[in-house]
Write a structure and sequence with these properties.
0% strand, globular, mainly alpha
Length: 491
């Protein structure tokens, strides 16, 4: 690392704080703070969506999988891209038309307010652990850059994200994510990828040096690919951090086309990470851990200045996911848990009731909690696996069922969340957190409970379904349904 590299990184970090301040000046309503005023165009929407889904796991972890398995190491990030494509093509337009802030508010609209609190707690736990795992990644990057102690690195990186997220909410995060998308594209795709391949002697030399399995599309194993699709592709369909970005789209067309562009970008990023990892295996065949491949090739293979930019790209990947998960966690905690515990009316569409101060406090509180948990937690993979297993096992069926099956009921949704979640927890305790069985049987149990209980109970009230249909179609709603959730209306 030279003075030039350090200067690039410091300027980048200072720029993130400056954009946070600028975003604060553009924020004048709850809608601005939580969903960027619902007015992002296709370019900014697609860039920021790609930024949030491609975090430290996709960058550092994706290169590590390429180092370990070769080109088939791209499957984890490919699964993320496929999930984003499915969300954008089949669901994003309808989701955007609902004009809500959280996934739990969507469930309230669809089922009449019978499952929002429980689903909110599950979603809060998922977003919290997602923010924690992203924050822990700062330790690796800042250790490479500055040689900082693990705790200091986590506090420094986390404090920067908490600062700009608290200042301007989604507007600040959107502005910083757009810069992070550009830096990540230049640093990883346009610089590190070709340099790594050239340093490794080109593809012919790589094929001659490595076993044939490194260039097999299924070398990582069919069961692993299937599990990635179940966890990450379906996770993209229902995660609060992803939905909250869909809510920022200016209209249906932006949500669909912008998300499709972001999903396609993810597929290219997946292949790039695997190729970089494969090149690193040729250059450094005896690394202590696969996840060291990214930092090692950056330190040893890149010229002055470029090294700083690529490390800034790694920071971009981590910060975009961390900030997106943080605001999602705070939004759920405030609007789905705290508001319900206080019996407060939930605002779902209007922006006239300004609660920026309350949401800002929750981002700060959740940010401090994330930093604290990150300092004491060690096993990132297990924490992230627990989060995704709970999310997909508990919430996939009620959410997709609500969007696709009119006969689904609130009782069925509650049973699905409870049975699916408990099955996942029980099997993780029995088979191990990283086993495949928890998500397989959790999803099956959730589906059976949802269908059986829905068919055995009274159909959802026609008035609730009528409000749901109107909102889903983007038709004008009554003043009551425009500002109040069914949970509050029923109460």
């Amino acid at each position: 690392m030279t003075a030039v590299d350090y200067t690039v990184i410091v300027v980048y970090l200072a720029g993130m704080l400056a954009l946070g301040w600028w975003g604060m000046r553009r924020t004048s309503s709850t809608s601005d703070f939580l969903v960027a005023g619902r007015r992002l165009g296709p370019l900014m929407y697609s860039g920021t969506m790609a930024a949030i889904v491609l975090g430290g796991a996709s960058t550092i972890g994706g290169v590590g999988l390429g180092y370990q398995y070769g080109l088939s190491g791209a499957w984890m990030v490919i699964a993320i891209g496929l999930g984003l494509l499915a969300l954008s093509v089949f669901f994003s337009a309808r989701i955007a038309r609902l004009k809500v802030y959280t996934v739990s508010q969507m469930l309230d609209l669809r089922y009449g307010g019978s499952s929002g609190l429980i689903s909110g707690i599950v979603m809060w736990a998922y977003t919290l652990m997602l923010a924690v795992t992203s924050t822990i990644a700062y330790a690796t990057i800042f250790d490479v850059i500055f040689g900082l102690d693990r705790v200091v690195a986590i506090v420094l990186g986390g404090a920067i994200v908490v600062c700009y997220s608290t200042l301007g909410g989604m507007w600040s995060i959107t502005l910083t994510d757009m810069v992070q998308f550009v830096v990540k594209t230049v640093g990883v795709l346009l610089l590190l990828l070709p340099i790594a391949v050239v340093k490794a002697g080109g593809f012919d030399a790589m094929k001659a040096e490595l076993p044939h399995g490194y260039f097999s599309p299924m070398g990582i194993g069919g069961q692993t690919v299937f599990t990635y699709v179940l966890i990450y592709s379906f996770g993209m369909l229902i995660g609060q951090d992803i939905w909250q970005r869909v809510f920022t789209a200016r209209d249906d067309r932006v949500a669909r086309l912008g998300g499709t562009a972001a999903g396609t970008y993810c597929l290219a990023y997946a292949v790039a990470g695997a190729v970089i990892g494969t090149a690193a295996r040729v250059l450094y065949p005896k690394l202590g851990a696969p996840d060291d491949a990214f930092a090692t090739i950056v330190k040893d293979a890149l010229p002055v200045g470029v090294k700083g930019l690529v490390l800034a790209a790694a920071l971009s990947a981590v910060m975009s996911t961390s900030s997106g998960a943080l605001i999602a966690c705070a939004t759920v905690a405030n609007n789905d848990i705290w508001a319900r515990m206080r019996g407060r009316t939930l605002r779902t569409a209007g922006a006239s009731h300004d609660e920026i101060g309350g949401n800002r406090v929750f981002i700060l509180i959740m940010g401090v909690a994330v930093i604290g948990i990150s300092v004491v937690l060690n096993d990132v993979v297990e924490a992230l696996t627990v989060a995704y297993n709970m999310l997909v096992g508990g919430l996939l069926m009620p959410i997709l069922g609500g969007l696709l099956w009119k006969r689904g009921t609130g009782a069925g949704a509650l049973a699905s969340v409870g049975v699916g979640g408990l099955t996942v927890i029980a099997l993780m305790g029995w088979k191990g957190i990283l086993a495949n069985e928890p998500i397989y049987f959790g999803l099956l149990a959730s589906l059976v409970a949802y269908v059986a209980v829905s068919l055995a109970t009274k159909p959802t009230d026609a008035a609730i379904l009528d409000v749901w249909r109107r909102r889903l179609a983007g038709e004008p709603a009554t003043p009551t349904s425009e500002t109040t959730s069914p949970a509050t209306a029923d109460a």
